[in-house]
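Final report, Chapter 2: Outcomes

The project's central promise was a pipeline that accepts a single protein chain and returns its three-dimensional structure in a standardized token representation, suitable for archiving and comparison. That pipeline is now operational. To close this chapter, we reproduce one record exactly as it appears in the project archive, with the input sequence first and the structure output second.
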Amino acid sequence: MFGRGKRGERRARTGPVVPPRPDHDTFGTPPHPLHTPRAHTSAVRLDKVAKAYGRGAEAVHALRGVDLDIPRGTFTAVMGPSGSGKSTFLHCAAGLDKPDSGRVLLGDDDLTAMNENQLTRLRRTRLGFVFQAFNLLPSLTVEKNVLLPLRLAGQRPERGRAAEVLGMVGLHAHAGRRPAQLSGGQQQRVAIARALVTRPDVLFADEPTGALDTTTAAEVLALLRRAVDDTGATVVMVTHDPVAASYADRVVFLAEGNLAGHLHAPTPEAVAARMVGLSQPAHARGRAA
């Protein structure tokens, strides 16, 4: 049932993807020809986004003027060493936190200009979220968990829509079960179905496979890949796993709150090599460059 989808089929026909040469692996470089993104407008755009915690000499600068465009219908992975700003990036991009300066645009709408009530309505209708913890309500059935975002948004919960998204994740037959009756992988697939039920502009995933074994993680990642390839969804995933990142069209790297390059058509080996380099002290990275 699960596979690498269209992207995996392209790789199977053409052989392994050659990692981009280091001198070409910078922002603004055209993507690898096998994975040229479709000509879409931006789903999310960060414009000089900065965020710090604390004040003065003790302040921690999580993001330092980040500029990034995420096109519609693409799968972007965000990686970086511990403390690089990945979680803050996701929270700002998804409207869960406001930057100190700069703008975050969802399509043409400026999230940074919205009040909390406006952001809450927007998150309920136009954004989907999948986290490492499945966050399913144990007292509700699978179907009711999936329909919960529609209820919270004040929309009429359509059982047909629940059946549609549960069919997409291969769990239509489990609609009447409760989360405790499912495996971890099945619960995460329910969480993905719940995130997709409102047809969101962007699905944000924060370490979605962190609590899963290798085989189950591959099934969940293939599902996210298919959501992009088959339905045109936009997925932004924070991960620490080079294998998980290889399912994306592009990996964006962060280091000390700054953008530190990207890879198109990533392979696990190329991602791991870049992560090793980013994990070195800043002065060591400077000498290597």
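Archive annotation: The radius of gyration is 19 Å.
This record, like all others produced under the grant, will remain available to the consortium after the project formally closes.
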